[in-house]
């Protein structure tokens, strides 16, 4: 997706080439990833601006993360595809720019697929290759156009060539973007899910070869339509238990999300190979994240057989993305999380499980008994906590992360209001007027309440209610040491859990 931000001076073409060539010297990331707000368990580029993840794919033993990237600065502009690879979804190695801005065409959000049978004719004979399907953006003095294009790689994504027949799908519209493409085994064709942002619609196309596309159906308007629809993704979701499956259609919304600015809703339903129909059962429409910072998340293509879907998003919000106090980079990704769905007393729900186990280090148990008003430990970021709170009706309990006496983030369960919340109104240095907020999610009456909390140097990611509530918020504290204080208000509370230090992904 895109969001227009005032650009600086356009650099000449030879400068673009120079930056790309210099980027080829990027080496293993050890030094230079230790700034005060540098994420230690989340991916961020070595320098410059990033927004949406693009082209997430597993190929030849590597997870590929492409991402919206400005090779020239730390604000939006000159959109190209950055590139990083990982063997475990956690430790990332940044590579040179994959698909650069070229001849007036910026490279917006899209997908990468593995063309196993060379249906496109873009692979070498009798070999599979990676093909990117992306939105190209061109702006002239009179018109701005978005259309869908191809690029391909014969060397595991290290170098890319644009298809000479681009664009492959062009409606001659200024807002037509973010193709999510995958292979449909049942129909034996490629499926594209793409947004018509201003119409609040998702359109489905089919193709035998990635070059020629036929419209199949449309979905929408539905759910929330207060802003542009962007970054759609259609996923076949396995059940948490059993063999039944549902389909999830995830759609970005900007602005107009309930927490303010950008956010993402999902619909659970059925897909028959041509059209998507949303269920009307309780829980079949919800939000992938109730925090301020998780946008344009997409799933990985071509995962090993038997894998559950994996989602990763951009950890920022368009309300103030260009104002975040980080340098020499701006922008980072959420943790990857594995997806399933469950059915409980509240209906259907998307379940998310963050991938962190490989980073866990030193462990300690947490026990907070009835009758105590507060209990505390000390931890440097990054760390993870898994805690179960038994909160009586009308009571509240949670945890406060103090970085000094004047700055803290509060994460809690409020039974009286029936909500889970993160309050960062006192968490940070000044960022923007829209930044100091209390984000909330509706809470089930089921007890006890579970909290999985990942704290990094500049963020908190919370997963509660068996992973059916996710809440991600940035914080910019005064230091990395946290005084972790468990609290209760009202009736006594019991909690038990575990806390782990987390190893840096850059070491």
List keywords for this structure.
single chain, globular, 6-stranded antiparallel β-sheet, disordered N terminus, 2 domains, Jelly Rolls, Tachylectin-2, Chain A, 507 residues, mainly beta
Query: Total domains, how many?
Result: 2
Portion of residues in beta strands equals over 45%
- Give the structural class: mainly beta
CATH architecture assignment of the largest domain? 5 Propeller
- End-to-end separation in angstroms reads 32 Å
Approximately how much helix is present in the residues?
Answer: under 10%
Mean pLDDT score, rounded?
91
Question: Could you explain the architecture of this structure?
Answer:
The structure is a single chain. The chain is mainly β and 507 residues long. The chain folds into two domains: 311 residues, 5 Propeller (Tachylectin-2, Chain A), CATH 2.115.10.20; 145 residues, Jelly Rolls (Sandwich). The chain is built from one helix and 35 strands. The chain is globular. The two termini are 32 Å apart. The N terminus is likely disordered.
